[in-house]
Sequence to fold (341 residues):
Amino acid sequence: MKIIDELDRQSYRNVWTISESAGGGIHPVSYELLGIARKLAADRGCEVWTVAMGSGSAKQADALFAYGADKVIAVDDERLRAFNDELECNVLERLIKKYRPETVLCAATARGRALIPRLSGKIHAGLTADCTGLAIDPESGNLLQTRPAFGGNIMATIKCADFRPQMATVRPKVMPMPEPEPGRSGEIITEPIQVADTLNVKEILQTIERHESTVNLSDARIIVAGGRAMKGPEGFHLLEAFAKQIGGAVGASRAAVDNGWIAYPHQIGQTGATVQTDVYIACGISGQIQHLVGMQSCKTIIAIDVNAETPMMKLADIAVQGDLFEIIPEIMKEIAKGEKL
Ligand SMILES: Cc1cc2nc3c(=O)[nH]c(=O)nc-3n(C[C@H](O)[C@H](O)[C@H](O)COP(=O)(O)OP(=O)(O)OC[C@H]3O[C@@H](n4cnc5c(N)ncnc54)[C@H](O)[C@@H]3O)c2cc1C
Fold:
């Protein structure tokens, strides 16, 4: 493998993001990536470029500029209507060799998880998956990639100092959504697919639409989440009634899911969903790091626990000490009274 020398290193420049389409539009995580890319580029004194691959991707450029891209490389081709990791990987490999970005950020979605490890292997670039924090050393340009390690017991900051580009994936909802700047403009670079990109790649014969899960934690504004203290499925019936009353969704810790009290799609944390709601109500969840990484960016955190000393109670904006089986029905009664007024 090739370790780059100083001269070679200097030929790599700019922060790239790989944008992703969803439901005929742009996946919101693409904007989150642009937000963090802007910060990194400001520290490094360089530009933000984004690669938009797909059918109709050139039309997405204005939105991508508004959220922070300086240049959009549009690979707008009908053959990219359905996700084909081999084809997208070949295209990206060619573009990276041509334009030499210093840093490449991609979403840790199903698409990103299929695409980016393949790409990093092909171009011998370092890759850190599932980062929860990103910063850059303005002098060396080394990306400081923070993520939970050793089962979430420590937060590790990883550098890929010997290779370029350096690549990281970030889960949706981990980075804050930036404010768009309508009317902000940039440059579109059109890159057609080349014959070499298409050689020996699989052909997509049919795509089957995924049926959305009834649990949509990522779009919820309020989540009421229960942990081991819920004691069983009946405890979650109480949370469901509470969540319904306040227009929220029900989440859970892994302890509750592993006990079979609620299904896995409700799990929040390192091995579950990452959420960024306006309000997160943690009911009997102690707040181990593996849970916190999935919800710590929520705007207002309310914790209910008998023990005031848990990490969740300490993290919470509002910590309510007491038995949740007494407190939640009381809160529900008060809300119902208010509704009648
Ligand atoms: C590799 C790995 C990945 C993991 N991934 C995840 C993940 O994605 N998500 C996740 O959640 N966990 C994950 N875990 C597990 C995590 O380490 C914790 O074990 C788990 O989060 C604990 O769940 P809990 O807070 O519900 O239970 P506990 O830690 O047992 O906490 C229960 C809390 O309820 C309180 N309590 C008890 N009775 C009451 C009552 N009547 N009223 C009010 N409060 C009460 C207790 O004081 C306590 O604070 C992972 C672990 C590993 C090793």
Summary: The chain has a mean pLDDT of 92. The chain has two domains: 6-198, 217-340. The first helix runs from residue 6 to 10.
